[in-house]
Amino acid sequence: MRLLSVFLLLLSCLTCNGQNFGAIYTYNYWTAKQVQHNMDKQLEKGKKNGSVPSSLKSSNGDTLTYVVNHKVDAFTLKLTFQLNEFEEAYCDFQEFSFDCTPCSQKHLKGFMDYYRFRQKEGNVYLSKPSYKTEMTVIYKSDSKDCLTIIFRAVSLPKKEYKTIYKGLNKKPTG
Question: Which residues contact 128 (CB under 8 A, 6 or more apart)?
Answer without folding.
Answer: 115, 116, 117, 165
